[in-house]
Structure prediction request, 111 residues.
Amino acid sequence: MRIPDHYVRVIELPPAVRGVTLPNDDGSFSVYINALYDDETRRAALEHELEHLARDHFYRPGPVAAQEAEARGEIPAASGVRRYADLRALEDYLRSIGALDRPLEELGAPM
Prediction:
């Protein structure tokens, strides 16, 4: 993933805001990180904002909540595709909706 040109500024923001990114007229971005937080939190906020840039969230349509989840490394619920950490998690889900009454291993080898 390519991260577009960006400028990082550490400024005081409202306490609930760790960071925010805004597009500039020249195609670059200004990333603002909250000065109220410690170094570790500021670093995590910067990584999160850069993840938005790398994933082209400013030019890709989609729900903001899904893009935030994606930038956090989570699978956005709004993607329409369910993903599971492993077969056990899939099996648990299928049981919870009543779609499975025996172990997955009995259904055959996974593809």
